[in-house]
Design brief:
The complex is a heterodimer of chains A (111) and B (855). Chain A has 111 residues and is of the alpha+beta class. Chain A has a single domain (8-110), classed as Arc Repressor Mutant, subunit A (Orthogonal Bundle). Helices cover 60% and strands 14% of the residues of chain A. Chain A has a two-stranded antiparallel sheet with strand order 1-2. The longest helix of chain A has 20 residues, at 82-101. Chain A is elongated and about 55 Å long. Chain B is an alpha+beta fold and 855 residues long. Chain B has four domains: 10-65; 133-336, no CATH class; 349-517 and 724-852, no CATH class; 537-710, no CATH class. In chain B, 53% of the residues lie in helices and 17% in strands. Chain B is built from 29 helices and 25 strands. In chain B, helix 14 (347-375) packs parallel to helix 17 (442-467) and helix 14 (347-375) runs antiparallel to helix 19. Chain B is globular and about 105 Å long. Classes of the chains: A alpha+beta (111), B alpha+beta (855). Chains A and B meet through helix 3 and strand 2 of A and helix 2 and helix 3 of B.
């Protein structure tokens, strides 16, 4: 993997894919982004992000079922790959590590 | 899969389908539809539509239109072909260079000749009515021989239009040549064409302003081209402005048409109404000075029509056999040439010749490619073997080598397009055309691409099938050598290349020598120190006074005038009467009218009798003949003989060269016609002061004819212009035979480099055993010279026979002598030696230790 860093939106999307499990397709991700993170993004932006993540090898996809309201078009269901998992863990560790080193921010904020 | 109808805005949906790649579209569109449906249910159709369009735009990102790499076998194989081809190109730099430059040169020739041919073929195709336009032509029968021409009498056009229902439009035209045109302060010479209004109904010369057809309906208005309008009126509106032709006829400009395309048989700067020309002249059926063009109704049967009009002219004449016929304009430029009543080609012959030339030069380049590719086959044999072992079918290997050939060809094609654009200005100068490679001309570009493709296929197909035919075991173990067949084939190809090259060199030399021969032909008069002033408009009236003043100039020895310049003389006329003429005897005789002292001024010599002179009162009935006329009329005592009704011969002029400089002089009768002059001849002494003298002549001219620009030609220069066509042919011959031999030499360099390398060990062993450098280099070279000698033995007799027959059409021809062939053969052989010896010497001087130390 050449680039192992991910952006903020990418990280959110990765986490949501894990959360959504078998329902992790474009529109569901968009909805979850709104509900969980109060982020309104266009469907184009979601597809752009998942495509990028797939290109980096952090997620993989398979075709899911087609419903009538989709005009008979398939869903693309995403799931995390091993390297996706690694990159999420690394990102979490880095942040936790940083938070630990700056207790004053945590105290001020809480206080 | 059920398909419930979902109706998002169609435009947005179409747009999405257009820019999305297929893989993305399926799921993206699905998500969009789902979203749309939900929004529609919750917020109504309008908002959902708007959001939909917005979302489609939001998806306009790189991921959506990037096509994922297809895993199809074909594309993978093709990518592989390209990679391998590219690597091979880079590894074998010398061969690639030779191949690409050879093909580039060949394709450059091909494209240039293609441009030339397509221009020739495009003649008169721009007329919208082209399939129905015909020119009326006539066969005239004299002494059983047919003479064909396009001159017709003036009453013919109107009589056909009123008398024949098939004729939709008819126009007479008279190309009056360059005439003096004044408009305000501008004086120029423009080509004036007289025509009937139907001219613009028949031909397609679109108007820019004004109505050209109506303009020709009134005798006082003219149509001019855009170029002429710019010249005469610059940027002001020309409509309604007055122009004067020849200081005598005044016209108002009534319409402007686009400039005449370069591929038009009919050329003009100004079209004036024929009715105006006709007004003061009585044009009867016996005056054949005009062209007649007609447009027939579609689906007219030409054969039946021609039968109907066959006798239309003849019935108005007595004692002449004239057959009229309509000739289609689409055949005029290429096929409009007749010999004894039968069409015998015309320009089309040149088109075929040039086409053949292009094909042969391209073939030479292809042969180079084939030779080099098969010569190196041993190097590629292992590759082919391994491929086959791995499981490649033959067709895949063929594809591989064809791709390589195509790649090289298209590199060459790219270079050649650059080269053509650089060469076009000089090529245009050479051929006297105005060719261009405009980007808008898609037919041209597609034929150029097709040319490249065919070249690549021809060049690549033999190597591809040859190389792909190796048996894997032999190829990998190296047991099977590239067979003897291939090497014989290579020699045959080299022989072919030099055959073409030597043939072209011989033709170049023949054209060169023949042109030199004609240009050095004794003319029968002195062209040096003779100038000619064209007579325009009403200049002839003042001739006698003008002549006297000119004769006062120091060094001017004689002044005369005539109806023709000395280079083009007269038109053929039949029906002459002379004593002793047989009943069926008749041949066309050229006639011309001249002024007093004509023989002296033109520098001709008298064989017998005297020049026209005012000293003999009654010279108005006198005439001169040339020797050929006297001989063909079988006049024993020409001087004093009566000719025609009441003329008598006062002198015989020695034959001189006129009209066609390559043919024997035709019979000529010269009358005294003091009012029919259109050229003034001035002869002066041969010394250093000629420039001063011309200045004085110009001064006198200005005092007599202040409104006319001074024009002057050296008769010698005018004569040289007659050779422009042959000179441009010579230029093309030199150019293309040079390129052909260049390509052939490239091939030889490649082959000799290959052989020198292959025989490295042999050379090493020979040297160890005591062979000298010269021994070895001669041994290496001689192999290559055999095909060159063989090709000379084939090309020389063929070229000799062809040119000997070809030159038979020319009266004043050279005899083909041995040195022409020796020069061509020597040239080819020495060039070949030069090319081959470089690698031969390099191989023979190489250190034998280097070549022998490893096995």
């Amino acid at each position: 993997m050449e680039k192992e860093y991910i952006g903020e939106l990418e990280e959110l999307v990765l986490l949501l894919i894990v959360m959504l499990k078998d329902d992790a397709y474009g529109l569901a991700i968009r909805k979850a982004l709104k509900e969980q993170a109060s982020r309104t993004v266009t469907i184009g932006a979601v597809h752009g992000t998942v495509n990028r993540l797939e290109g980096k090898g952090f997620i993989e996809s398979r075709l899911g079922g087609a419903t009538e309201e989709r005009g008979g078009r398939h869903k693309r269901i995403f799931s995390l790959t091993a390297s996706g998992r690694k990159v999420l863990e690394r990102s979490r560790d880095v942040k936790v590590n940083l938070w630990r080193q700056i207790p004053e921010l945590a105290i001020n904020k809480l206080g | 899969m059920s398909n419930r109808k979902i109706h998002p805005p169609r435009l947005a949906d179409r747009f999405l389908q257009w820019f999305c790649s297929e893989e993305v579209l399926e799921t993206l569109q699905g998500d969009l539809y789902e979203l749309y449906e939900r929004r529609r249910e919750r917020r109504g159709k309008l908002l959902a539509d708007i959001y939909y369009a917005f979302d489609v735009l939001s998806a306009l990102r790189p991921f959506a239109f990037e096509r994922k790499r297809s895993n199809s076998n074909y594309t993978t194989m093709f990518q592989h072909y390209l990679t391998i081809s590219w690597r091979n190109l880079r590894v074998n730099r010398l061969y690639s260079l030779l191949n690409i430059s050879g093909l580039a040169v060949g394709l450059t020739c091909g494209i240039l000749l293609l441009l030339w041919i397509s221009h020739e073929l495009s003649y008169d195709t721009f007329h919208k009515n082209q399939p129905n336009i015909y020119q009326l032509m006539r066969h005239e029968v004299m002494s059983g021989e047919y003479f064909t021409g396009d001159v017709t009498p003036a009453p013919l056009g109107p009589s056909l239009k009123s008398g024949m229902p098939e004729v939709v439009f008819a126009t007479r035209t008279l190309g009056a040549g360059k005439q003096l045109v004044n408009a305000g302060h501008e004086n120029t010479y423009e080509a004036v064409l007289y025509a009937d209004p139907d001219f613009f109904n028949i031909m397609t010369f679109p108007s820019v302003t004004g109505n050209a057809i109506e303009a020709l309906n009134s005798p006082g208005s003219v149509v001019i081209t855009e170029r002429t309008a710019k010249k005469l009126f610059e940027h002001t509106d020309p409509i309604g402005k007055a122009i004067t032709v020849n200081n005598t006829d005044e016209f108002l400009v009534a319409a402007v048409v686009r400039d005449v395309p370069t591929n038009s048989s009919i050329r003009f700067d100004i079209v004036a109404p024929f009715s105006g020309y006709e007004q003061n002249r009585k044009l009867k059926w016996d005056n054949n000075s005009f062209q007649t063009w007609i447009m027939l109704a579609p689906a007219t049967n030409l054969l039946a029509f021609n039968e109907k009009i066959d006798g239309v002219v003849e019935e108005h004449l007595d004692n002449e056999e004239v057959h009229l016929f309509a000739f289609p304009i689409e055949r005029l430029h290429l096929y409009g040439h007749f010999n004894n009543g039968k069409p015998d080609g015309g320009k089309i012959v040149f088109v075929y010749l040039v086409g053949a030339l292009g094909v042969f030069i391209l073939l030479l380049a292809c042969v180079n490619f084939m030779n080099l590719a098969t010569a190196r086959s041993e190097r590629r044999a292992k590759e082919v073997g391994i491929r086959k072992v791995i499981g490649a079918q033959r067709r895949i290997i063929v594809g591989q080598f064809l791709t390589e050939a195509m790649m090289i060809t298209f590199f060459g094609l790219f270079l050649s397009i650059v080269a053509v654009n650089l060469l076009l200005p000089s090529f245009n100068e050479l051929t006297g055309k105005d060719l261009s490679m405009s980007l808008a001309n898609w037919q041209l570009w597609s034929s150029v691409l097709a040319l490249g493709w065919v070249t690549g296929m021809v060049a690549g197909s033999y190597p591809a099938f040859f190389l792909s035919g190796f048996k894997p075991v032999q190829a990998v173990t190296g047991l099977g050598k590239a067979g003897k067949g291939a090497s014989i084939f290579r020699r045959a190809l080299v022989t072919f290349q030099f055959f073409v090259s030597i043939f072209l060199i011989i033709s170049t030399i023949v054209i060169y020598v023949q042109l030199d021969h004609i240009q050095g032909r004794p003319l029968g008069y002195d062209q040096e120190n003779l100038i000619e002033l064209p007579v325009r408009g009403d200049m002839a009236k003042a001739f006698d006074l003008f002549k006297n003043d000119l004769l006062q100039v120091q060094g001017v020895t004689a002044v005369s005038a005539g109806g023709d310049n000395l280079i083009r003389v007269g038109g053929g006329l039949t029906g002459f009467q002379w004593p002793g003429k047989g009943p069926d005897e008749d041949f066309p005789i050229n006639i011309t009218w001249v002024h007093y002292d004509w023989v002296e001024a033109s520098g001709l010599t008298m064989a017998d009798g005297r020049d026209f002179s005012p000293a003999f009162g009654a010279d108005s009935l006198a005439c001169l003949v040339n020797e050929t006329a006297a001989r063909r009329m079988r006049l024993e005592q020409p001087v004093g003989t009566h000719l025609g009704d009441n003329n008598y011969i006062v002198g015989v002029v020695k034959d001189f060269v006129y009209n066609d400089p390559t043919s024997d002089p035709e019979p000529l009768v010269i009358y005294l016609g003091t009012n029919r002059i259109s050229h003034i001849f001035v002869r002066f002494q041969n010394d250093q002061d000629w420039q001063k003298r011309i200045g004085q002549i110009e001064e006198i001219f200005g005092s007599y004819f202040p409104t006319y620009p001074f024009e002057m030609h050296f008769t010698k220069d005018e004569y040289q212009k007659r050779f422009e066509v042959i000179r441009s042919m010579r230029g093309m011959a030199i150019l293309f035979s040079g390129l052909a031999i260049f390509i052939a030499c490239l091939g030889l360099i490649g082959l000799s480099a290959y052989v020198a390398e292959r025989r490295k060990k042999e050379v090493g062993i020979r040297k160890v055993l005591g062979a000298t450098i010269s021994n070895i280099s001669i041994a290496l070279s001689v192999d290559f010279l055999k095909p060159v000698i063989l090709s000379f033995l084939l090309a020389a007799p063929l070229a000799g026979w062809l040119f000997d027959t070809g030159l038979d059409d020319i009266d004043y021809r050279i005899e083909l002598s041995w040195w022409i062939f020796a020069l061509a053969g020597g040239l080819a052989l020495s060039l070949a030696c030069l090319m081959v010896s470089y690698h031969a010497i390099k191989a023979s001087t190489a250190n034998s230790v280097e070549s022998l130390r490893t096995e």
